[in-house]
Amino acid sequence: MERDGSLPDRSTGAAKVGSDREGLELALAEAHAALALDEVPVGAVVVIDGIVVARGHNRTRTDCDPTAHAEVLALRRAAAVVGAQRLIGATVYTTVEPCFMCAGALSHARVARVVWAVRDPKFGGAVSLGSVLTDPRMNHRCQTAEGECADEVRALLRGFFEDKRRKARESTDTPDLS
Ligand SMILES: [Zn+2]
Question: Using one digit for the tens of pLDDT, what is the confidence trace for 152-163?
Fold first, then answer.
């Protein structure tokens, strides 16, 4: 079923996105929601016709689900909102370069464009370790963009992992018995 271009304003408060920065700022807000759950802070939003149709943030620990990445959760919700398995014309904003799984899901969803803030040298499947979104052999290719909001996203991730390392150090220190 084709969209008619007049998505109703439902389920997400109908936030409007007029630029990549605005889209990534909303994704960053989702990353903060992940942080509040003590999850690796990654967030994503799906935008169609300039309107946010779905949001998602990493919930792998919370849901005990290795596939509960921000992009996958946002795609599932967007598909439910649109009522179609394909999100033709959608732009997905995500704080971190999609992993191979998410890049595959974005390709299956036929999204038009994927925008991320920072690359992921250990898991990135879009440019860092592979080119799932743009490989000419793929059935579907997405436009991509990156770099906006990179400082904010990097600071959030750095703070999260520094905190984790500090807590790990503290837990291995000799307990204070005084
Ligand atoms: Zn992923």
Answer: 999 999 999 999
Grouped pLDDT means (10 residues each) for the chain, 178 residues: 42 78 98 98 98 98 98 98 97 98 98 98 98 96 96 98 93 68
Do 53 and 124 contact (CB within 8 A), yes or no? no
User: Is 71 tagged catalytic?
Assistant: yes
Span from the CA of 100 to the centroid of ligand 1 (angstroms): 7
CA distance 62 to 107: 26
If you search the block for the tokens 């704080």, which residue do you land on?
Answer: 95
Distance 129 CA to ligand 1 centre (A): 13
Distance, CA 172 to ligand 1 centroid (Å)? 31
E strands in 27-142:
43-48, 51-57, 91-96, 113-118
Catalytic residue among 22, 25, 30, 71: 71
**3-state SS assignment for residue 19:** coil
Distance 169 CA to ligand 1 centre (A): 28
Q: How many Cβ atoms are within 10 Å of 75's Cβ, its own excluded?
A: 25
Bridge partner residues of 88 (DSSP): none
* Amino acid (one-letter) located at 97: E
pLDDT digit string, tens, across residues 59-77: 999 999 999 999 999 999 9
Of 125, 129, 126, 127, the C-alpha closest to 100 is: 125
